[in-house]
Design a protein that fits this description.
Structural class: alpha/beta
Bound molecules: ligand 7PJ
Distance between the termini: 15 Å
Number of helices: 9
Shape: globular
Helix content: 40-55%
Largest sheet: 8 strands, parallel
């Protein structure tokens, strides 16, 4: 399976690593260490050299209870980083944003992929994504970041998430975004208990029947911490790599991670098994 990402082609025959690049000062897992452009570029180059096929640049923290970001803050954080990666590093650039203005500016700055945790539900986002002609990842979230972990509840988490994603694919199709430019993501940790998350991971294959590539992000999240008896964020690398391997074995095309080198090596082993 090949994904056209603007002027690049991403080969999804084997599971690819998407490295997380947070430009937020309050991101939970790297604490804003990479909030200046220079350090962000350094980190992006390192992740690309470690095997990341995609760098996901984000300027809005969506961790539970995070403070809201203004449009200008998000633009100021994200766009200079996208521009500089695009000029200096041979890698696919994804932008983690729900804002149509950021999507437009990001494409202009050289982005190849749109990653929206709100699945293009913001006013104007569907149309801008269509106009930018870049692939878009539609993620499931129940509630919004400020309240999503209060009391997550589902009739059946698998069916509920599946139906939501199917409807968002339809909404995309309706404005002319074809399936070959769509990815889906069950949204681990976004309005879900650890049990919900592990049910989704166990049955991840189900999402392949939506007919578009599947992206997952479990890296360092609380589901990993809970499985390990409550270990802190910096003790979650091995658990996160295990989750990435399971996802890849269940058909995930892209895994969004912080620990690129470790995940890349583990996925090379998965690739050898599948071959
Ligand atoms: C995800 C994301 C995810 C996609 C974040 C964090 C929270 N985008 N952006 N999927 N998570 N597509 O990294 O902990 O799971 S931000």
């Amino acid at each position: 399976m090949k994904l056209r990402c603007g002027d690049r082609i991403l080969d999804l025959a084997s599971t690819k690593v998407m490295g997380v690049l947070n430009t937020t000062p309050d991101s939970f897992s790297d604490g804003g260490q990479f909030s200046t452009v220079e350090s962000a570029i350094h980190r992006a180059g390192l992740m690309a050299s470690q095997g990341a096929a995609i760098i996901d640049v984000g300027g809005e923290s969506t961790r539970p209870g995070a403070s809201q970001v203004t449009l200008q803050q998000e633009l100021d954080r994200v766009i200079p980083v996208v521009e500089k990666i695009s000029r200096n590093i041979d890698v696919c650039i994804s932008v983690d944003s729900s804002s149509p203005e950021v999507m437009r500016a990001a494409k202009e700055a050289g982005a190849h992929l749109l990653n929206d945790v709100r699945a293009l539900k913001r006013e104007g986002a569907l149309q801008v994504a269509k106009d930018m002609a870049l692939p878009v990842c539609l993620m499931h979230m129940q509630g919004k970041p400020s309240n999503m972990q209060k009391n997550p509840s589902y009739t059946g988490v698998l069916d509920d998430v599946y139906v939501y994603l199917a409807k968002r694919i339809q909404a995309c199709n309706h404005v002319g975004i074809e399936n070959d430019q769509i990815l889906v993501d069950p949204g681990f940790g976004f309005g879900k208990t650890a049990q919900h998350n592990f049910q989704l991971l166990a049955k991840l294959e189900r999402f392949k029947t939506l007919g578009v590539p599947v992206l997952v992000g479990m890296s360092r999240k609380s589901m990993i911490g809970e499985a390990l008896g409550g270990v802190s964020v910096d003790e979650r690398t091995v658990g996160s790599v295990a989750a990435a391997v399971i996802a890849a074995m269940h058909g995930a095309h892209i895994v969004r991670v912080h620990d690129v080198k470790e995940t890349y090596q583990a996925l090379e082993v998965v690739k050898a098994v599948k071959a």
